Amino acid sequence: MGIIKFDKKQLINLEYSLNRELLRTNRAGTYASTTIIGCNTRKYHGLLVAPMEDIDNENHVILSSLDATVTQHEASFNLGVRKYPGIYEPKGHKYVRDFEIDIIPKIIYRVGGVVLQVERILSEDDRIMIKYTLLDAHSETTLKLKPFLAFRNVHNLGKANLFVNTKYQSVENGIRVRMYDGYKHLYMQFNKEVDYVHVPDWYYNVEYIEEQRRGYDFQEDLYVPGYFEMNIKKDESIIFSAGLKEIKANTITKSFSSALKKRQTRETYLDCLKSAAQQFIYNRNGKTEIIAGFPWFGRWGRDTFIALPGLTLYNGDIKTCKDVLDTMTKDLKDGLFPNIGSGETTAMNSVDAPLWFFWTLQEYSGFVKDKAVIWKEFGKKMKHILENYRKGTHFNIKMHDNGLIWAGETGKALTWMDAVVAGKPVTPRHGFAVEINALWYNALMFSLELAQVAGDQDFIDEWSVIPEVTKLSFLEKFWCDDRKYLADYVTYDYVDCSVRPNQIFACSLTYSPLSDHKKERVLETVRKNLLTNKGLRSLSPEHPDYQGFCEGNQEQRDRAYHQGTVWPWLLGHFCQAYLDVHEKSAITFVEKIFNSFQEDMTMHGIGSISEIYDGDPPHTPRGSISQAWSVAEIIRIHYLVEKLKNTEAKI
User: Which residues, listed in sequence order, are joined to residue 232 by a DSSP beta bridge?
Assistant: First the structure.
């Protein structure tokens, strides 16, 4: 694939460049994100966005942006880009000549005889470093840097006020500021002595066009404490450092180089995916967690277990997988994992997260090769989940006498199809849901497999008869004999035969209640009705409730979210099932699916895969610019293909 590049014509075209966003995280919760030309289009964008444990334990935009102005012969050129009502000002994109990403982003500006290269890197210690290198100049050149500060929660917008602390303190080669009490100081320093001019001011009505499109408040005021000014010579590099802790000025250059050496190359498509996978891993305060997506998601229980194997195991990182499992199991309560939030804001409303936990352990067992140890380490947690599901837990989650899991409560959406509008689930699916019971059957069988290896006869005696009951009931309840596919959910007096992708898990899981023939029929139905080159549709276009575009305000998007919108993560299980059923004859077909995301490395979230795509062509990317389970499952598809190839080669 090589280095990702954009040329001048693409970069100065705002319609093109503003739809391409950059993201970098430091595996400790802090991230930097903006568009490829540096114009923030979301309230979530910023050069330093970090968790504030002392405030609300959520991410806060500290440094929103940094304008660079080049002065030569008393003529000044501002390289920044910002949107105000009816205008972009300044218009620094006019001076962009090249942009590329290999290990880190690199952008080159040309202003008259000045050629300035700008590189950005986010380090592990919650610090953004920006390196300015003067590649060419024919006379004395001055560089002025103006920081735009926000100091607010990523989900909110700031307004000019009288409470802001306009004072600053000098530190080595820079200053420190703190807009409001309760926040940590922001240290802005350089690798050389610079002049700082303190002229506190507000910039009003900065607009974020993506928030406007999504129906949210989109204007805010940003605070500028002053500006830094310095001379810069040809071939000289000046590094700006902004962090939550002070750094020794004489170590900034070395810190930049050290951080660069730790970065992964992006020479190939697979390199891009593996690099993206690293960004979802969160190590902070003794916890290892998975961020579901950027820029607005936090830790989600369901997403964690679905994404974990692809992000870690298939990246050769068994330890991180174990660390995440250990972190998550500490929060297990009444048979359920937290779906979102933590502490008092925790929501346990996910019927499938505990069942995906079993699948993750299944994947984990394929790498550690010691099932007895897995039962020893996680068996107690597995039993806890099974027992709570059998006797009943919150939200009417309970195994009925037919061996199937019932779940549902008014106003609650417990499966992954969890959009709620005006207090009502868009796809309630109360009753027996097909993927929940496929996962339940798989969890039962896998648990018995581990217990058998570990010699846990008591567990085997207690649970061994249930899977057969579950299997028979599954076939009786879900198989639509006239249509030759599986119902999406059923109750005792209703069968929903909408063609949805949830039935695919009954084909992909290691233990399935379906025969190979039935799997083939399900796969064919899904392929014909739901498969696109960007994922599986969440509902067949033939259904009257189908919506082909996921756009508009939040209510409009939520109504389309699971009513036809395409989800890349579903491809992992579709491809696994397809390879299991069709074996080597499916390799070319599945490789084509894997390679279809190569073009996405230069779209939406550069080097990553989006959360969702429109159901209708051209399948425009939507939602978060980088989603954990999207990236994870595409990585897993690659290794499923390689594994089958290697198996065939040995034969």
Answer: 141
Q: Where are the domains of the chain?
A: 4-261, 271-327+530-651, 331-529
Between 29-38, 345-354, 395-404, the lowest mean confidence (pLDDT) is in 345-354
Class of residue 231 by CB neighbours under 10 A (exposed 0-12, middle 13-18, buried 19+): middle
Q: What is the mean pLDDT of residues 44-54?
A: 95
Q: What DSSP line would sit under 599-633, residue for residue?
A: GGGGSEETTS--SEE-SSTT--EES-SEEHHHHHH
- How many helices and strands, by DSSP H and E, does the chain display? 18, 38
Burial (CB < 10 A; 0-12, 13-18, 19+), residue 520, is: middle
Q: What pLDDT is attached to residue 651?
A: 58
> d(Cα 541, Cα 367) in Å, to the nearest integer?
39
Contact 334, 398 (CB under 8 A): no
Strand, helix or coil at 270? helix
pLDDT tens-place string over residues 161-201: 999 999 999 999 999 999 999 999 999 999 999 999 999 99
Nearest to 564 by CA among 543, 589, 591, 594: 543
Note the pLDDT tens digit of each residue in 352-379: 999 999 999 999 999 998 999 999 999 9
Tens of pLDDT along 464-523? Answer: 999 999 999 999 999 998 889 999 999 999 999 999 999 999 999 999 999 999 999 999
Q: Exposed/middle/buried for 253, CB within 10 Å: 0-12, 13-18, 19+? A: middle
CA nearest 359: which of 473, 433, 299, 436?
Answer: 436
Task: Give just the sign of the alpha carbon dihedral 642, 647, 650, 651.
Answer: negative
Residue 132: which of 152, 150, 114, 154 has the closest Cα? 114
Q: What gap in Å lies between CA 58 and CA 341, rounded to an integer?
A: 10
Residue 483 confidence (pLDDT):
85
CATH topology for the 331-529 domain = Glycosyltransferase (1.50.10)
CATH class, 4-261 region:
mainly beta
